[in-house]
């Protein structure tokens, strides 16, 4: 009787030991939801970001909605303790990755936010933006910890736009003064598509006429042509600089004017040449930024 009881105890012990030798967790799959980040997922599942990246062969922290991620791959060693089967060496902290996007034609903050599964508010905070205005060639951070090396070309198309925070020389400002004087004499001139004379002007024809009369010889081009041509982005615009807008009568860069200072600009709109305000509820949502002809030194 005692011998039979000992055998039963021995059998139960053997079964218990065999269970301890089984993996403590099988590979589990998690489907990415809106608002998720690798950090959030790692914290919720009590694993590290590096673990998730290793298990899913991710090269950076970018994830997207509906993406399926394996978030648990553990096995046991002889002592019954979980180990990472992918390596027997101590894991090292992941290197910080540069997560950025270079703005291309047709981009908007809303479109970029949706593309990378982040919020528009996040992008504005990470990049110190106070408005939704962005410009072609601008490099945007897509992670609060991201760093953007100077001259970054890692994503998007093209290269970062030229940029200046300096005021023009005395000669350049003299051209600006004369150009604005000419522009003001044109107020009330009717809008004519393709027009570039005082008989009728479209928005880029207005720029062409005013600047040539002001002493800067430029060729005739469209708003988009001037934007992508021989112009430089201006971080501290002054009266005389160019101001550009997008998605007015067509997608992309589609309108321009001459900045007058104090948020005012003069342009040839649908009602003809007039002075408007960039903070207006319509223009503020279309504003792309300010530029300067490279010939203005």
TrEMBL record:
Q: Which Pfam families match?
A: LysM, NLPC_P60
Start and end residues of each NlpC/P60 domain: 173-294
User: Membrane spanning segments where?
Assistant: none
Q: Which UniProt keywords apply?
A: Hydrolase, Protease, Repeat, Signal, Thiol protease
Where is composition skewed (Low complexity) in this entry?
82-98
Q: Which residues form the signal peptide?
A: 1-27
Q: Show the coiled coil region(s).
A: none
Q: Where is this region: Disordered?
A: 75-98, 147-172
InterPro entries linked: LysM, LysM_dom_sf, NLP_P60_dom, Papain-like_cys_pep_sf, Peptidase_C40
Chain intervals with Polar residues compositional bias:
156-172
The LysM domain sits at 28-71, 99-142
Which superkingdom is the protein from? Bacteria
PANTHER family associated with the record = MUREIN DD-ENDOPEPTIDASE MEPH-RELATED (PTHR47053)
Q: Which family does it belong to?
A: Belongs to the peptidase C40 family.
- What's this protein's name? LysM peptidoglycan-binding domain-containing protein
UniProt organism field:
Lysinibacillus xylanilyticus
